[in-house]
Amino acid sequence: MQRRSLLKSMAAIGALGTIAACAPANTTPNIVEIAAGNPDFSTLVAALQAAGLVETLSGPGPFTVFAPTNAAFAALPAGTVDTLLLPENRDQLVSILTYHVVPGQITSDQLIGTRQSVTTVQGGTLDVNGIQSKANSGVRVNDANVISADIIASNGVIHVIDGVLLP
Known about the structure:
The protein has 7 helices and 7 strands, in the order H-H-H-H-E-H-H-H-E-E-E-E-E-E. By secondary structure, it is α+β, with helices and mostly antiparallel strands.
């Protein structure tokens, strides 16, 4: 009788192990998944799709993305976003979007209290100013303010900015 109970217990443990092995792992989403899940980034996601950069920014990275909000895109001159999303303007769109991406993972603790130039994937440089003063109470990237920092993704980090960076 004890033998049957032992066999049943072992079978139950084996079944639970199999079920646990088949369960999806709880993983951190990548940069694109985070952006796609946030309605404040719908313009950015549409631009990434039009530029063909979704696969790249879903890749292993690591990347640091200075991500403009919908409001940042809306502040551009009227018709700019619509024009950039046209297939014939893809190269210009790629240039603008990759200007927002820095190779490697740079978190806010590496920016606060420093002023540095960082090279973007596009090849240009960004002036990142984390030195606080009367005029600057947070981190600025060129003329944009970081309004939310350190959104950690599986393949890097996102810093939300209030302006679109133009190369």
